TrEMBL record:
Homodimer. Its main location: cytoplasm. Gene3D superfamilies: Aspartate Aminotransferase, domain 1, Type I PLP-dependent aspartate aminotransferase-like (Major domain). Pfam families: Aminotran_3 (PF00202). It comes from Parapedobacter pyrenivorans. NCBIfam families: hemL (TIGR00713), PRK00062.1 (NF000818). This is Glutamate-1-semialdehyde 2,1-aminomutase. It catalyses: (S)-4-amino-5-oxopentanoate = 5-aminolevulinate.
Length: 456
């Protein structure tokens, strides 16, 4: 997503027609894309979808089932993008479809409470020790924006700390990138975000305790919260040391600032209780999105009853939504999360993911390819690098994205669908069977052989 923002404003690159021998047919997709360009900026409703960082025009998707996607030209893919994370059960899951159909029959929206909201809340809160109350919204962006407002309202402070390389949706205070220097006020990373908003956001590098200490020293008593992704997974996969997360917990407590885990990706992904339980660290506020809605637009934020008591109408922090807690979306969330409750669900998903990732690691090591596969649970990321660890955004070599670009094209040609940017992670879902993962591995090996034959 961060890459998408950068590219949306910097890319002047023309789309190459996919003329290479063996390239899949994209005629119908190209036709649809031409039309879409008349209607939408860049032909899309979210920038990364425009394929600016990979070859060819975007694929228009016709349908999905299990771990498969079909595009408008009838090409079939094994999908590792999974709608950017929400589809942990795969596409078109029968139980979600059934529950959604039932809800559909009763009407699409009432703007009044329904039992379905209670049902989803109960499912979450009864199985999550980290939060006591929750508020449903309609996207991850909205969840994070509201969590920030809560933190500011609760502490009476304005400044927040975010990390370079973490994405938290597209709200104003979070569309901010690092300026120069170790601890800086952010610079806006989008036109239209006032510098005065960015001035309330301090952007610092990940994996750097000094920078956090300096920020608290410099802005003593002004910092409302630190926000960090459960595991930063929007700008590569920047896996942090548990000790670093614990340090963030300790220093926020010490300065009476809040710690916000943005678990829009990691929530219900690393486990039912997400990264908080994975680290065994209790944040003050947690945000959710993606998986929570089973493929429908749902976000949420949760905290202790005391903190959530500051949200309106109980408290003075205003936050609302016409379609919040939408019954059809709640139904999808209930159906999906119900399947995730058992501990064996994550055990088998993680084992399967690990075997898949390990096999690719063994292959690339044997071939001596300049490639590392970083992974946690069912999230993985191909990094075309020699580095053993990548913990900070600045450790990513931007030139290495050329490898990803070639890799992505080879993968599509072999029926494997990944996100159209080398900064994006891949996801294994419960619908990826051993047979498909075996096929995917072969296609990945062949694609890598092809990439490194030409590049090295
Ligand atoms: C996707 C994402 C968001 C934004 O969610 P949207 O539903 O796209 O608005 C926020 N934070 C994180 C960590 C995300 O991965």
């Amino acid at each position: 997503m961060l890459d998408a923002i950068k590219k949306a404003f910097t890319s002047n690159e023309e789309h190459q027609p996919s003329g290479k021998k063996g390239d899949i047919s994209r005629e119908k997709s190209a036709e649809l894309y031409a039309k879409a360009q008349q209607y939408f900026p860049g032909g899309v409703n979210s920038p990364v979808r425009a394929f600016k960082s990979v070859y060819g025009t975007p694929l228009f998707i016709e349908r999905g089932d299990g771990c498969f996607l079909w595009d408008a030209d009838g090409n079939k893919f094994i999908d590792f993008c999974c709608s950017w994370g929400p589809l942990i059960l795969g596409h078109n899951h029968p139980k979600i479809r059934e529950k959604v159909s039932k809800a559909l029959e009763k009407g699409l929206s009432f703007g009044a409470p329904t039992a379905l909201e209670n049902e989803l809340a109960e499912l979450i809160l009864k199985n999550n020790k980290c939060i006591e109350k929750i508020r449903f919204v309609s996207s991850g962006t909205e969840a994070v924006m509201s969590a920030i407002r809560l933190a500011r309202g609760y502490t009476g402070r304005d400044k927040i700390i975010k990390f370079e390389g973490c994405y938290h949706g597209h709200s104003d205070s979070l569309l901010v990138k690092a300026g120069s220097g170790l601890v800086t006020f952010g610079e806006t990373s989008s036109a239209g975000v006032p510098q005065s908003f960015a001035d309330e956001t301090i952007v610092i590098p990940l994996d750097d305790t000094k920078a956090v200490e300096t920020a608290f020293a410099q802005f003593d008593g002004q910092i409302a919260a630190i926000i960090i992704e459960g595991v930063p997974a929007n700008n590569g996969l920047l896996i942090q040391e548990p000790a670093y997360i614990q340090f963030l917990r300790d220093i926020t407590r010490k300065h009476r600032a809040l710690l916000i885990f943005d678990e829009v990706i990691t929530g219900f992904r690393l486990g039912f209780e997400g990264a908080a339980a994975y680290y065994g660290i209790q944040p003050d506020i947690i945000t959710y999105g993606k998986i929570i809605g089973g493929g429908m637009p749902v976000g949420a934020y949760g905290a202790s009853s005391e903190l959530m008591g500051h949200i309106s109408p109980d408290g003075g922090v205003y936050q609302a939504g016409t379609l919040s807690g939408n019954p059809v979306a709640m139904a999808a969330g209930i159906a999906q999360l119900s399947e995730l409750k058992s501990s064996s669900f994550y055990k088998s998903l993680h084992t399967k993911s690990n075997e898949f990732v390990e096999a690719i690691r063994r292959y690339t090591a044997a071939k001596n390819y300049k490639l590392k596969l970083f992974s946690v649970g069912s999230i993985f990321w191909f990094a075309f690098t020699d580095k053993e660890q990548i913990r900070a955004a600045s450790d990513i070599d931007h030139h290495s994205m050329e490898y990803y670009k070639a890799f992505h094209r080879e993968l599509l040609n072999r029926g494997i669908y990944f996100g159209p940017s080398g900064y994006e992670v891949g996801f294994v879902s419960a619908a990826h069977t051993k047979v498909e993962l075996e096929k995917a591995k072969r296609a990945i090996f062949e694609s890598l052989d092809e990439v490194f034959r030409h590049k090295s």
